[in-house]
Amino acid sequence: MTTRIGVVTFPGSLDDRDAQRAVRLAGAEPVALWHGDKDLHGVDGVVLPGGFSYGDYLRCGAISRFSPVMETIIAGAREGLPVLGICNGFQILCESHLLPGALTRNDHLHFICRDQRLRIENADTAWTGSYEAGQEIVVPLKNGEGGFVADERTLDMLEAEGRVVARYLEVNPNGSRRDIAGITNEAGNVVGLMPHPEHAVEPLTGPTTDGLGFFTSILKKLVNA
Amino acid sequence: MARVVVDVMLKPEILDPQGQAVQRALPRLGFTGIADVRQGKRFELEVEGPVDDAALARIREAAETFLANTVIEDFTVRVEDK
Question: Which residues cross the membrane (chain B) (predicted)?
Fold first, then answer.
């Protein structure tokens, strides 16, 4: 049976097509999900893509978090449904309280777009099993509100429980606390990531193909389950 | 109709780069003596019916779940005199 991964389109999503493409290149079947439709159409996992859902009004991800599809995704994620939130998707996961902390305005106030070196810190999540812990990858990063913040106690807890999934190397591009680029929930099925692995899946269009691992990871995880 | 104002501000410990940029721009424009600027959001809610304790409690709930992200923001709720 083919593994089916849903990719949600919100009004203002930008990277839903690239995420679908990455899912396909990894060998799974992408399924387009619509923000206004509660039905997940039986998918095995969900990607919340990047973009500016609802124009980033109020706060990034704050309105999307209450969309009909998110109601089902939040309930599913608590039961173990694998969910990967990229950029705006990460913001939505934090606003949904599926992940702790929040994403705030870059400390230097500029939108940033660069090829970013990362270190995969946790290779045991549903979305990072294709990597080795400590592996360095380069994928595009593009955000205006990508600064990860949380109180010291939450940061210490994330570190102690190995829930920092990826960390920025060389430069901290947005003021994220402790160079955090991505985190996971306690169960490891929900991962939020500020950089964009879905833009690094083909040599023609990406700086590398390092991002493909996030999508092959979920395939491997679901096939072995 | 009564107006209820919800003010949302970043918590003191959260960096406010927008406020800092405003603060740095002020002296260039000749507005000296301003040591710090914090930037926030103000919501004006026009409420149908009486603004009693129950109505205010609902507005506080709306502020807590939606208007503010209490991970990084504090809010205040007050009835505005007209």
Answer: none
| Residue type at position A69 | V
Other CB atoms within 10 A of residue A7 CB: 27
Give the minimum alpha-carbon distance from B2 to chain A in angstroms, rounded to a whole number: 23
- The pLDDT value given to residue A208: 97
From A95, A121, A145, A198, the catalytic residue: A198
**Nearest residue, CB atoms, A107 vs list B17, B66, B67:** B17
A2: Cβ contacts below 8 Å, ≥ 6 apart? A28, A29
Domain B2-80 has CATH 3.40.50.300: no
Q: Mind listing the domains of chain A with CATH numbers?
A: 4-224 (3.40.50.880)
Residues of chain A found within 8 Å of residue B14, distances taken between Cβ atoms: 104, 149
- Mind telling me how many Å the CA of B16 is from chain A's nearest CA? 8
Flag residues of chain A having pLDDT under 70. 1
The partner residue sitting opposite B71, judged by closest CB among A58, A102, A147, is A102
**3-state DSSP assignment of residue A65:** helix
